[in-house]
Amino acid sequence: MNMWIPTEHEKYGVVLASFRGTVQHGLPLEIGDTVQILEKCEGWYRGFVLKNPNAKGIFPCNYIHLKNAHIKNKGQFETVMPTEDSVITEMTSTLRDWGAMWKQLFVKNEGDLFHRLWHVMNEILDLRRQVLVGHLTHDRMRDVKQHITARLDWGNEQLGLDLVPRREFSMVDPDEISVTELYRLMEHRHRKKETPTPVSTHHLFVHLKSLMSSNLGEELEVFFFIYDSRENKPLSERFFVKLNKNGLPKFPEKTERQCTLFVDLGSGDLRKDVYIVVHIIRIGRMGAGEKKNTSNVQYRRPFGCAVVSIADLLTADSKDDHLLKVYACNTESDWSQTHDNIIKKVNSRYNLSGSNTGLAVALQLLHGDIEQLRREYMVLFTRGVSITKKLGFSDVIMPGEMRNDLYITLEKGEFEKGGKSVARNVEVTVYALDTDGQILKGFVAVGSGEPGGDEYHTFVLYHNNSPRWSELIKLPIPVDMFRGSHVRFEFRHCSTKDKGEKKLFGFSFVPLMQEDGRTLPDGTHELIVHKCEENANLQDCARYLKLPFSKSNLPGNNQTVKGTKESLWITSFLCSTKLTQNGDMLDLLKWRAHPERISDSLSKLKEIDGSEIVKFLQDTLDTLFGILDESSQRYALKVFDCLVHIINLLQDSKFEHFKPVMDTYIESHFAGALSYRDLIKVLKWYVDRIIEADRQEHIQQVLKATEYIFKYIIQSRRLFALATGGQSEEEFRCCMHELFMSIRFFLSQENKGSRPITQTQAVFLQQFPAVYGELLKLFTVREVATFVRETLGSLPTASQADCPLEAVKLHCITKTVESQLYTNPESRCILLPVVLRLLQAHMQEQRDLVMCAHILTCMLSLLKKDDATASEEVDLIVESVLGVLLRTILEVSNRPQPAGPTLRPQVQDVTGEFVSCLLALLRHMKDRHYQQLLQRFTSKDDLRDFLLHIFTVFRILIRPEMFPKDWTVMRLVTNNIIITTVLYLSDALRKNFLSDKFDYKVWDSYFCLSVIFINQSCLQLETFSASKRKKILEKYGDMRVMMGCEIFSMWQNLGEHKLNFIPAMIGPFLEVTLVPQPDLRNVMIPIFHDMMDWEQRRSGNFKQVEAKLIDKLDSLMSEGKGDETYRELFNSILLKKIERETWRESGISLIATVTRLMERLLDYRDCMKLGEVDGKKIGCTVSLLNFYKTELNKEEMYIRYIHKLYDLHLKAQNYTEASYTLLLYDELLEWSERPLREFLSYPMQSEWQRKEYLHLTIIQNFDRGKCWENGIILCRELADQYESYYDYRNLSKMRMMEASFYDKIMDQQRLEPEFFRVGFYGKKFPFFLRNKEFVCRGHDYERLEAFQQRMLNEFPHAIAMQHANQPDQTIYQAEAQCILQTSLVFPGHSHTCMPTQTLMLADDIARSLTNFHADLQIYAVTPIPDSQDVLQRDGVPDNIKSFYKVNHIWRFRYDRPFHKGTKDKENEFKSLWVERTTLTLVQSLPGISRWFEVERRELVEVSPLENAIEVIENKNLQLRTLITQCQTRQMQNINPLTMCLNGVIDAAVNGGLARYQEAFFVKDYIMNHPEDGDKIGRLRELMFEQAHILEFGLTVHEKFVPQDMRPLHKKLVDQFHLMKSSLGIQEFPAYVRASPIHFTNGSPRAGRNSAPNIMNPEGGARVVSRRSPLSYPAVNRYSSSSLSSQASNEVSNITGQSESSDEVFNMQPSPSTSSLSSNHSASPNVTSSAPSSARGSPQLSDKHKHSRENCLSPRERPCSAIYPNPLDPTQRPVPHPAGDASMPRSDPNISTPDKVVKPAPSSWSLDMPPSDFNGKGPPVPPRPPYTGSPAKTTRSQSPVMTSRSPQKTSAPPFTPSPTECQTTGLVSNSPVLSGSYSSGISSLSRCSVSEASGTENTSTDHALPNSASSGSDELIRRENKTPPPYSIHERNNPRRQVPLPPSLSIPPSIDAPPIPPKPHQIRRQDTEPRRPDQFPRPRPIPRKVSQL
After folding, report:
1. How many Cβ atoms are within 10 Å of 501's Cβ, its own excluded?
2. Pairing with 1297, which of 129, 656, 805, 1340 sits 20 to 30 Å away (CA)?
3. Where are the beta strands (DSSP E) in 1153-1218?
4. Which residues are registered as beta bridge partners of 1841?
5. pTM score
């Protein structure tokens, strides 16, 4: 068996093909992956992919392409780097990183950057292929690499990646170069990226496309030139394009004839008054409209002109084509000035040549050097473009530039008529001729773009003897042909008659060079026009060249020619690098011919223009040194001065590029071997005269030329030594020493008197460093270094700080350390002391810091790592400048930074450069240097100051703003140096500042530095990509862990001094432990145990530790620090540490508290990451807020989170909850004048002012949330305060606001919210939700489906449970998934539960009962109001009652019907039970959250008999209410009463009540249930009572029934008699007949006025009408068969639901068998639809939409028979008696007899004596007292809502409201009565039977034990529970008298709506305690201790 062998050379490779890795231990590979190979065996490699080094495996060898690689750390931890071009390596790694980020751009929808990066990546890949192929030339390779690096830098910048330091396109290793050099590279790249260098050279690209005009037909010539309107002269040559007759280029195939580049434009040329001028000339007939003549003679004639400003091109899009308007002049004589007129907008002299005439031109400004443009716009130059030069030389004249161009402008002419009656048509023809008179072929150039011609014809102006042309031509005649050449101008008259001949009538000429060799002078020349005939012989030029050519050159006696009127004016301009027009220059160059003129010529040299001198630079220098060699004694001084002048001339920026020309001359052409003697002598003479000279200007000019003077001296001596074999060496050295002695002497002088010698010294020092290199050519390094040291050392030291010499000194030092001399270690040791002395002096005085930083940078960049001399230099530098360097950094970094962008380097912040110097110095320091450094401190105070300084500086270096964001490389180097230095200095800290020498400040500075170091963002490796993290770990390791270990070590050394840092260092150390590095956490967390231990020793507890931990945790975790792993680690490590401590119990308590706080903070942070405000955010904030209040007692944090919760509510528009939240802070304040500090957004103010502000804010939010009742309470409290201060103005406003709230209560509609029960089961939920159930207050219009979807959106990983049963432990502990359970809670409705996944409408339920199983349940929860006094009171409007029905709710209830025992298929009522569950919340709704946790569940079962009693009681109550409304004429339509009577009577006739008789009145039931005797009696009484009410109702019905419904009434009467007989009722018992029914007549006002009769003193409540009878939909019926089948299939699964914003009464359809009724309607709990064809089925869309009419207010309803007019006074609600003992939901604390109230007086009542009856209807017998069943001990009323969507029938079903015991009428949804009301006997009995009392019927005589205990439990819980003040109902107004509880108070008799009860009335009634106190109270926050 072969073994795996480690590979030696096969280490690195690239995957050629994908490998799936299906073999054992196989490693999957993808094509392109790079792998590192570890071992090899028989064709297989073992290794790993570099991007995932943890996964190792095997793969085939032939899948890998091997590459050469460099191996570091060979062995187990070896790293492999490919030995390829570094640019290739960088490209590969960068593209990999970009690939992952590029995909994320797509995910983040950043499409623009996504596509741009895609193109750049493809471009880089293409360039990478070119580099890899290796076929590129060296120059091309350089360009490609530059392009690659530019693209890489662009992509890194766009993606926010790090800036890569490069040198020559290759990445640099930070360890291989100096820190100062690294900083310089980074700074250079950063500066280049931020501020591109301004370009001084610009070029204009012009491309002529076409001329668009309607009147073309002739060829055109177009001329472009750049024109300066300020100087009124052209700046450039002309660009010439020929167009054909269609306006298109004549030569389209030759692009160079259509495009040009105007080159060498300076920055000053890009201004508004510089224009591009276009002249257009047509070639054709004389007149544009002339008919074609026979001669075919072509003339050049003006056509048009166009102008555009160059400044406009700077802002325009360079790629756009420009359409230039073409103008024509009105008068031909003004043609030459047309462009000026257009520019100056002289509109009278030009007009548009045509409305549609335009020149299409592409114009683009290009910037940069012409060579750079050739590279960047390669296509432009390869396809061809002509170059149009600037007139004259450019701003910078380059050596080697060859030009010899003569520009001639034909300005104007003056001609005589020549015997003609009209003026001539003059055309000028221009020729260039040589000495022999031959025409120079091709040397007459009209402009670039077209080749030069032999001649040029000007354009012709019609009949003009004084033509102005201003046409420019160029004559590029070679230098050798210039002499003897001339230009001839021939003048011809162009006749328009006959054959159109051009007749010659004269000529002019001008020679190009004068006899003395000077060329034609620049300027304007008036030429003589010599007359001649057509046949004149001009071929013999010798004949006319003897004639005068210019009037200025005529002799004085030739007046004849001068007097002639005919002249030609031309302007000439020579641009030549070889020819001159200067005679003085010619005289100097020809000095041998005229020796007598030498002195004058040398003197005049300074007056010659510099451009002339540089033209002949070499010739001039040869002349000077020739004169010096031959006549040194006579002319030495003058030659020296001329040489100085020429040298200084080259300092000018225009000629500075000629310095290399002079350097070349010195090296190659200079031959003055003897000149050095004279030069030294003259220079020394000047230096010696400096001190005595009164004027220093000339001497300063001499010293400015020192560099080149020394170059000439050294070169001359070298030539002499070479020629003589080194003779006179000693003489030369002696002369040089004497020269330097003179220099040192003059440098040592200080200013005396009026001679400004300092300026002269400064001039020399500026030039002196340039001499070093020349001296090294003849002297040794040590000699030159000695010269320099002595020279610099001779400078005066007592100079003032503001002396200009000081800055020059530093500049000289800078040049010195930059020079070649200083790079030599031998000379460096000589120069370093003097350099450091000057540098130290400047840094101490904080002068010229930019220069100081630069000097220090240069010095340190020369230090090598392992150089012996470098160690000594480091010693010197550390001793001299380390301390001052630290102080300088501190000083500079603390300076205020300028607001705007600063210029570098003049005004820059030099901190970065000094920092790089400090880092470089520290990097070079070794153990020896640190030891010597520490030994130099003579006292502890000095060492202490040094440590404080360096620790402070290190903190500055770590600041994020220290370096730009993308300088990660620089930051890592900095951190590596810092941690190394800290490790050295920590020993000094331990040795010198512990025990009795302990210094807190130094130690504190050390710990602060360490903490800041660890928390740097650049060290958080977890945030980096895997490749970047790997590189950092390989190079530096995890520096956080290293520093953490050092902190722990130093902490352990502190001993008892640790107490000095408790609790100050708890926060910083906690921040360190939150860093997600496991090793660091393991090291640092035990420090907290140590702190606890020492604090316990000192004070016996560790309260300080606990307080600090808690305070810091909140701020740190809110910043995103910490995670679940940290929480577990913190808990486990500390618990383990304290196991054996004596204070273990208190320690465990602390750890548990902190751990719980972490849980909540982590949940809070996770929730806050979400985008929108949702319940999760609010719930999490509430949980955290409660924790701070109850467990931690942290008032400030508590208040902070109050405001965070408040902001969340406002953002979610939960204004009511926002008010309750802010009320928490309000309750902590008192009405006092105690001053409060500034806190959050509150200013410094008194407690009274802040509380007032809070009150106003809360009132405003209550108003916005339509919770006006609560706002009224605060208005009253605030009004009392205003009244007590006599602030009547604000008191008035507050009373008006209170009044407005009353109006809003009565006038505005408020939606009653729905309530939902939600359970969260499973460990994946946040801590505050985990395995808990809540009741949530829904949003407006939010229904179950919407709420459920919202929950699933908030918890996308949750799964909705399919059943409503309580989950078991497996679900509680579930890890894999989250379980969500939702149920619905409706206000004002009673419901049973349903499964959440299938929400079924009530009309679908009955139809689908056979298809459901028990686990598909949705249950609804009914709120149980506490405010029974308002709900039970007569005359209270519905708008008021509706508030108390859904506000301040603590308890909710839901019912679940089920069958117990054997189900009787014939009569299901026998076994139909109801399971009633009551949920009690920890807080009431609404509150500070929209949901609260369920604190307690109570479950009871209601027997079938009790259920039957409830059903009939509700039906009787409904009948009473309808009859009363009809009596009092509140109903315009009697249909509701008709339908109700029909439903009850018809159902009873068909067996409705009979089913109850069969179930409960049979002997078997009575025998088996003897305990139910009273209940059976009660049921019997209710049945008799119902019959009595029906009889009375029929009497009332007969009185009001319309005529068309009389047959129905008769049928009802007949059926009623059948019903009576079926029940065996012949005559009502006496007690029934004697019982008053309390039908009250009168208006609601009368009801309120008779309040004492409505509410008895015992608290019994009467029924109060609440809603107007506007929308009471008819009940749905279903057939007997369907009922039977539905009833037989788990009737108990589901109950119906219905809702309405107005109060409606839902009838009670019964799912009983056919024996009950032929037309049964749904029970109050289940409303279902019958499959009756009479009702019709709504469309599908109608089934799922909400029935809006059920939610409309009376004002919104339509008026019809179905919806009566809401404004009819008869429709207004009327109070009704409801306080008799038979009524359910009455007060359980009042005995049954006490609940009987006296009837209100009315016009007619059943309790009248027979004499008063008057035949109005039979009296209804009274109901006897009844004792409630045990099941009712926990029963309470619940609001009921109508069905939330239309039912099967045309009229939706409805059920009676359980929160009140009356209705205001029933109106069918159809004009025709459809269906009938059931008798109220239902198998699915009313499970949440509720009336206006809102309380339970409790038996006072027959209460069972369980009911008693239940009630006592309730009392205990209410008494002991002390809820946090989250509700306004806990407020206590000390200024208002506390009213009595409702049971003890006298009912008010006022006419206004009832005043909302105060909070203490609602929640803290002494007579009826609500919350028990059996649980331990949480730690309270003191009520009035807030300082915030």
Report:
1. 14
2. 1340
3. none
4. 1698
5. 0.64
